[in-house]
Design goal:
Layout lengths: L17 H16 L3 H12 L4 H14 L11 H4 L10 H10 L8 E2 L16 H4 L2 H13 L6 H4 L4 H22 L24 E2 L4 E2 L12 E3 L4 E3 L1 H17 L1 E3 L5 E3 L5 H10 L7 H4 L2 H10 L25 H20 L5 H4 L4 E10 L11 E9 L13 E9 L2 E9 L5 E11 L10 H4 L4 E10 L2 E8 L6 E2 L1 H4 L12 H7 L6 E2 L14 E9 H4 L8
Parallel strand pairs: 1-10, 15-16
Antiparallel strand pairs: 2-3, 4-5, 6-7, 8-11, 9-10, 11-14, 12-13, 12-17
Helix pairs in contact: 1-3, 9-11, 9-14, 10-13, 10-14, 11-14, 13-14
Pfam family, one: Hemocyanin_C
GO molecular function: monooxygenase activity
Protein name: Phenoloxidase 2
């Protein structure tokens, strides 16, 4: 493992840095090729005590999730392992005091302040509950564990991987912009001009406990600079970013990209978005990084190092350089609004879907409403509110204490609700369909009605599931907590237990589960105190055309 020692054990680790990705890929490959679980545990224990702590956690977790003999093994949450990436550092002295000085029965729950990065004078702070939400940031980290940018072929070369990169980040941008409307702010401005000052500041006030270095702040009106970071083995210019952008735009407009051999690869309706997304992201599946660059990665690095582009002050990367923290920064949403615009440009070149592609012969949705999951509530009225939850952070403290050390924080939550869908099947035989449910605002932050071309940029997926439809009228009832796009609330903020409280190993693994999905408590937009109008949209397609294999979640 000598190659892995090139990253110092207590140094910062970033998957946006090519050298770090390459080392992580080699380590993942080693873990994947070990013959059995026993050997994996032994080698893992040896490696853990010698390599960079963040590198090990990433590489080992990716390997566990992709080995056929460990697919059902659930690892502890990254929140419990590295709470410094999610929690206000000012609470750690209090947590350590509780853990070291106070006996278990007398320990108090330590409160994590809801707003600790800016005051109400900063308009962007209205979105702090979204950007700095623990579940939202864990979702982004975990998605990139399942779909790494680099690694062995069997890990990264997944069906429609690039398309899923596009869709996942697009949904984040849709959700963020809708939350902005809820707070009377306009949509995030796309970062098309790489030389324009970045109006939004961000002072994260986060500290990496591994090296006791803070994540650097970005004051208002900073501009992106050419990067020359010999210490990390990379350099590029803003001009190179502009060239990559323009070449990608030219490829989209021409309808093809050129691969490494000079062959033209068409950006057709079936595979085009997958090819283009891998190219823009600059994953290992990019067909020609020499020609089209590493646009998405360069953007993250330019934002992450704009405070010290030449290593003059020996500063490490900021929030935008760490997958577990990037969504805290308003700059993330500006950059990914641009990335989304690039990929939408390709979509706008395609012909519209035909009626045949969108229809499901004989199947018609005849009724739709939602109700809160309680008696005597009016239809089509949903409720959000603030909720306090607790999490055990003992495992992430240096020289961890015995027992639990609990922290409490405030987050958005919604009252449970139920979808009621009426579907008429006029066919003579049963049919199998895929139900998709979406929500979108009717108006923007100025209460101006959204036109369709605008409206589609704010549509949020709430659920997707398969259903059997008998001939005649079918009444479908679906609870909000059954959503296939979210991680269950009790798996993000679960009840704190000890191993002694859990009857068997399987239950312990379930307790330690950290799944990939949008956090359930953030399923609905916040809305406003006086109420906010949304469109609820349901469609049903033919399951036979949607099914991609046994992994389809019903």
């Amino acid at each position: 493992i000598g190659f892995a020692l090139a990253i110092p054990r207590r140094a910062a680790f970033s998957l946006f840095i090519q050298r770090h990705r390459e080392i992580a890929s080699r380590l993942i490959d080693i873990f994947l090729k070990l013959p059995d679980i026993s050997t994996l545990i032994g080698v893992g224990s040896y490696v853990r005590d010698r390599v960079n702590v963040y590198l090990f956690q990433y590489a080992f977790t990716v390997a566990v999730q992709h080995r056929p003999d460990t697919t059902n093994v659930n690892l502890p949450s990254i929140l419990q392992l590295f709470p410094d990436q999610f929690v206000d550092p000012s609470v750690f002295p209090k947590l350590r005091e509780e853990g070291k000085v106070v006996t278990q029965k007398d320990r108090q729950v330590i409160d994590i302040p809801m707003n600790f990065t800016a005051s109400d004078r900063e308009d962007e702070q209205r979105l702090a509950y979204f950007r700095e939400d623990i579940g939202v940031n864990m979702h982004h980290w975990h998605w990139h564990l399942v779909y790494p940018t680099s690694g062995p072929v069997e890990v990264i070369d997944k069906d429609r991987r690039g398309e899923l990169f596009f869709y996942m980040h697009q949904q984040i941008i849709h959700r963020y912009n809708v939350e902005r409307f809820c707070n009377l702010l306009g949509r995030a401005k796309s970062m098309h001009n790489f030389r324009e000052p970045i109006v939004e500041a961000y002072f994260p006030k986060m500290v990496r406990t591994a090296d006791s270095r803070p994540y650097a702040a970005r004051p208002a009106n900073f501009t992106l600079k050419d990067l020359d970071r010999d210490d990390e083995g990379f350099k590029f210019t803003i001009t190179e970013m502009e060239q990559a952008r323009d070449r990608i735009f030219a490829a989209i407009d021409a309808g093809f990209v050129v691969d490494k051999s000079g062959k033209r690869i068409p950006l057709d309706p079936k595979k085009g978005i997958d090819i283009l997304s891998n190219l823009v992201e600059a994953s290992d599946l990019s067909l020609n990084p020499q020609l089209y660059g590493n646009l998405h990665i360069w953007g993250h690095l330019a934002l992450a190092y704009c405070h010290d582009p030449e290593n003059r002050y020996l500063e490490q990367f900021g929030i935008m350089g760490d997958l577990a923290t990037v969504q805290r920064d308003p700059g993330f949403y500006r950059w990914h609004s641009f990335v989304d615009d690039v990929l939408i440009r390709h979509k706008d070149h395609l012909d519209p879907y035909t009626s045949q592609e969108l229809s499901f012969p004989g199947i018609t949705v005849t009724g739709l409403n939602v109700n809160l999951a309680r008696k005597n509530t009016p239809p089509n009225v949903l409720l959000t509110y603030w909720q306090r939850s607790q999490v055990d952070l003992a495992a992430g403290l240096d020289f961890g204490p015995g027992g639990n050390v609990l922290a409490s924080f405030t987050h958005l939550q919604h009252a449970p609700f139920v979808y009621n869908i009426d579907v008429n099947n006029t066919n003579a035989r049963p049919a199998r369909g895929t139900v998709r449910i979406f929500i979108a605002p009717k108006a923007d932050d100025r209460n101006l009605a959204l036109k369709y071309g605008e409206w589609r940029r704010y549509v949020i997926e709430l659920d997707k599931f398969a259903v059997s439809l008998n001939p005649g009228i079918n009444k479908i009832t679906r609870r909000s907590d059954q959503s296939s796009v979210t991680v269950a609330y009790n798996r993000t903020f679960r009840q704190i237990k000890t191993e002694q409280d859990i009857p068997n190993k399987d239950d312990l693994e379930q307790f330690q589960f950290c799944g990939c999905g949008w956090p359930d408590h953030m399923l609905l937009p916040k809305g406003t105190a006086i109420g906010m109008n949304f469109d609820l949209f349901v469609m049903i397609s033919d399951y036979a055309g949607d099914r991609v294999g046994p992994e389809f979640n019903e």
